[in-house]
Structure formats: structure tokens, C-alpha cells
């Protein structure tokens, strides 16, 4: 046995060259190693959290761009309305000035006639040299003594001059407002373009950081960047799907339980009472009547009376809920003038624009913004709707999402309790899809409905 051990030791060399045995790790070493493992796990968890945060940066940036775009659309609409009002005011002012000039000429003719008749020379001089009625009134006292036809002429001149002066001032104010509205629209456009640039920068930075984190995560997990990127893509897709499904469930809750089926005719509803059929008197027996001259025993012959009034046996009909008086844009508010056929026609027209670019404030034909697309689509179908997304929501009939048909509109808002915060609109095409002009850089497209951020109700023009 000893010889065998010596041989083994000699062959292995383990005992032939004795050396000190390794020092076992101390408790501190074990704690440090465990802390390092936990730190690594914590670092991985932090990277996972940050990657989840980065997954929504793009969505948040897109919303910011859409909000800015809607503000520009509203400012542009306001500027166009202000310019229309200014043009109309200018036309009214021009017409009033022409009327005043006609009245002045009539007054000049009257003054000349009076001068030829031996009177009113001072009136003629005043009318010919004055700039307006006030000058005429100051230059002559004749006006206070005029009567009849002459007085009517002077009154027409007075009224026409007053109207012309008023409308000239109004036209000037309207022109100033239109100019200010144009400046506001330009500022809104600049802000929208900046929001778009900022969004692209945020998305690019988030993409770079995501790549760096995925590479670091691959090292920590001892996998590859390709594997980790695929895993993160799957996590992001699953997260978005869950969020979209939750938002859809909130907007399209399952149908409420149907009311209990009412028993067949003749069976009393729960809690009701009717006369037992077995006690119904035989044919020929009346209320206190006779049969063959013999009076029916009052005790055994029940009176034939109308059964007690009970609840109807038909299924109850629940009326549609009435929106609170304080809810200006609740379910059932607004107006719908389009038919189902017109809705389908609007969809067909909108689908024909697929591939065209998104254009700030665009109403075609070369490109559209979101509300420009829906407005033009419904206009092509013969129904006029408002210009901006918020104004469209306020105008159209509010309906439940479960009752949508092609052509109905879907709205998004940064505050779904406030219609003024709506920033996007798209058109339902059926089958869970919609057509939309989403944002700059994204052509008009047909895509699945995004439920997050939608208003409580859809809209039917």
C-alpha cells in the first residue's frame, strides 16, 4: 500500500514538491464576491429599466410633434378666418365709401340747385370744400333750416358718412388683427418645426443609448448584442401590445349582461301574482250569473275580474344613457349629417391619398395634415366638417367605439377630459384599422388603431 502511494505521488508530482495549500476565502472575500454579483444583477436591472424608458421616447416625441402641428393648424385656421373677416370688412368699407360719395354728390347737386334759386350759396361752398359731414355742419348754418327733400338729402349724407367712417375704422382694425394672426401662425409653424427637429434629435439620442445599453447588457448576460436586441425588441412589442389592449378595453368594454329573459306569457314575473288558471270558471259561468236558472254557488264560483296589473312580459328596453348636462361633448352630443354610404365614400377618397406626404397645415392636393385629410375626405363625400381636429370633435356626433362604421373619426388628446387638448384625428376604415396623416416624415397610411390617448367617444360626421 505504501509503495503504491509513493508511486502515485511520484507520478503526479503533487506531493513530490510540497507547497503551501491555498488559503480558503475569508468571510470578507465571500461578502465582496456576493456584493459584486448583486451589483452586476442590479446593473442589469437598471439597464433593463432604462431600455424600457427609451422604448417610449419615440412615442412621446411623436405626440409632441402632433400637438405642435395641431397648434399650428389652429393658428393657421384663425389667421385665415381673420383674413376673410378683414377682406369682408374692407369690401364693406369700400361700399360704404362709395355710398357716402353718392350721397355727397346728391348734396352738391341740391346745393347748386338752391344756389340757382337764390339761396344756399353758403351750403354749396361748404359742401364743395368740406371733407365730411362735420365740416359741412361747421361751415354753414343752413343745414338746421332745411326741410323736406333737402333735409332728406342731408340726412342721407350724414348717415352715409357716419357708416363709411365706422366701417373704415373697423376694416383697419380687422386688417391689424389679420396681420397679428398671420404672425401668430408663423410662430406656431416655427414652433412645430422645432418640435419636429427636437423629436428627431431625441429619437436619435435614444437609439444611440439603446444600442450602447444592449451591448453592455450582452456582456453582462454573456450573450450577444444580436440576441439582446431581439429580446428587447420582443419586450418592447409585448409592452406596447399590453398597453394598447388595456386602452382598447377601456374604450370598448365587454357588452353588459343582457337582462334576464322574461318567462313566457302566462307565467308571472318574479314577485308578481295572477289568478291561478285552475280556478277559472267554466264556460257559461259569469259574474254572479246563472246556468239553467240555478245561481252558481258564490263560494265555489270565483269572480271573473281583471287580473292585477303586472309588469309587461316583454323584455325591458334600456334607453341610451343621457350625458350629464355639464358634459358639453358627451355621448350623443354633436351632429351627424352623413350616411353610411357617404362614410364609405369618404374612406375610399382618403385611401386614394395613401402615400402622399404629411404637410404642415396641408389640405391637398399634394399633401395633408391630419384634420385636412379628414375634412377633405368628407367634403368629397358631400359633407362639410370643421377644419381642426378639436373643432371636428366638438362638431360631430359622439358615438361609442363599438358602434363605429367606416368613415367615423377617432381623436387623440393629451387630456381626454378636455376637447381643447385634442391633437390628432384619423378615419376608421373597418377591421380595426384607420387611415391617417400622422406626422412629418410619415406618408399618409393605413394602420392599426392606436388606442392609447383616444377620446372617450368616436365621432360621426
Description:
With 461 residues, the protein is of the alpha+beta class. The protein has helices at residues 2-12, 27-54, 57-116, 121-129, 133-139, 148-221, 225-251, 340-351, 370-380, 389-395; strands spanning 290-291, 294-295, 397-399, 409-413, 422-430, 433-436, 445-448, 458-460. The strands form three sheets. The protein has a four-stranded antiparallel beta sheet with strand order 4-5-6-7. A hairpin with a 2-residue loop joins β1 (290-291) and β2 (294-295). Residues 1-17 and 257-326 have low confidence and may be disordered.
Strand content: 5-15%
The Rg value, from CA coordinates, equals: 43 Å
Q: What is the count of β-strands?
A: 8
Which consecutive residue ranges, at least 5 long each, have pLDDT under 50? 1-17, 257-326
The run of helices and strands is HHHHHHHEEHHHEEEEEE
Choose one word for the global shape: elongated
Biggest sheet: strands, sense, closure?
Answer: 4 strands, antiparallel
Number of helices: 10
Give the mean pLDDT: 77
Amino acid at each position: 500500500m505504501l509503495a503504491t502511494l509513493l508511486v502515485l505521488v511520484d507520478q503526479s508530482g503533487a506531493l513530490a514538491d510540497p507547497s503551501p495549500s491555498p488559503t480558503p476565502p475569508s468571510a470578507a472575500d465571500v461578502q465582496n464576491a456576493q456584493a459584486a454579483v448583486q451589483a452586476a444583477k442590479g446593473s442589469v436591472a437598471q439597464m433593463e429599466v432604462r431600455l424600457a424608458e427609451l422604448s417610449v421616447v419615440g412615442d412621446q416625441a411623436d405626440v409632441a410633434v402632433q400637438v405642435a402641428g395641431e397648434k399650428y393648424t389652429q393658428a393657421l385656421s384663425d389667421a385665415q378666418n381673420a383674413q376673410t373677416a378683414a377682406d369682408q370688412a374692407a369690401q364693406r368699407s369700400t361700399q360704404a365709401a362709395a355710398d357716402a360719395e353718392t350721397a355727397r354728390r346728391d348734396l352738391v347737386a341740391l346745393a347748386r340747385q338752391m344756389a340757382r334759386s337764390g339761396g344756399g350759396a353758403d351750403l354749396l361752398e361748404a359742401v364743395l370744400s368740406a371733407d365730411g359731414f362735420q365740416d359741412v355742419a361747421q361751415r354753414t348754418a343752413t343745414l338746421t333750416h332745411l326741410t323736406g327733400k333737402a333735409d332728406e338729402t342731408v340726412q342721407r349724407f350724414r348717415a352715409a358718412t357716419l357708416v363709411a367712417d365706422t366701417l373704415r375704422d373697423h376694416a383697419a382694425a380687422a386688417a391689424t388683427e389679420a396681420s397679428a394672426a398671420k404672425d401668430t401662425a408663423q410662430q406656431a409653424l416655427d414652433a412645430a418645426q422645432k418640435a419636429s427637429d427636437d423629436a428627431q434629435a431625441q429619437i436619435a439620442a435614444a437609439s444611440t443609448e439603446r444600442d450602447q445599453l444592449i451591448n453592455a447588457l450582452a456582456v453582462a448576460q454573456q450573450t450577444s448584442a444580436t440576441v439582446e436586441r431581439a429580446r428587447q425588441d420582443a419586450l418592447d412589442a409585448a409592452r406596447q401590445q399590453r398597453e394598447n389592449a388595456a386602452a382598447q378595453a377601456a374604450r370598448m368594454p365587454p357588452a353588459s349582461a343582457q337582462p334576464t329573459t322574461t318567462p313566457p306569457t302566462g307565467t308571472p314575473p318574479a314577485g308578481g301574482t295572477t289568478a291561478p288558471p285552475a280556478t277559472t270558471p267554466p264556460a257559461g259561468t259569469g259574474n254572479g250569473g246563472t246556468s239553467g236558472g240555478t245561481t252558481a254557488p258564490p263560494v265555489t264560483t270565483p269572480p271573473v275580474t281583471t287580473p292585477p296589473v303586472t309588469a309587461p312580459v316583454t323584455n325591458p328596453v334600456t334607453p341610451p344613457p343621457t350625458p350629464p348636462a355639464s358634459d358639453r361633448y358627451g355621448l350623443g352630443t354633436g351632429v351627424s349629417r352623413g350616411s353610411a354610404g357617404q362614410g364609405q365614400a369618404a374612406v375610399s377618397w382618403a385611401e386614394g391619398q395613401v402615400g402622399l406626404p404629411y404637410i404642415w397645415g396641408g389640405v391637398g392636393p399634394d399633401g395633408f395634415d391630419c384634420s385636412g385629410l379628414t375634412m377633405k375626405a368628407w367634403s368629397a363625400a358631400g359633407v362639410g366638417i370643421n377644419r381642426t381636429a378639436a373643432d371636428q370633435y366638438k362638431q360631430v356626433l359622439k358615438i361609442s367605439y363599438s358602434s363605429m362604421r367606416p368613415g367615423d373619426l377617432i381623436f387623440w388628446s393629451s387630456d381626454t377630459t378636455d376637447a381643447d387638448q385634442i391633437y390628432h384625428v384619423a378615419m376608421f376604415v373597418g377591421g380595426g384599422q384607420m387611415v391617417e396623416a400622422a406626422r412629418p416624415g410619415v406618408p399618409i397610411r393605413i394602420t392599426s388603431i392606436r388606442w392609447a390617448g383616444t377620446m372617450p367617444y368616436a365621432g360621426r360626421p
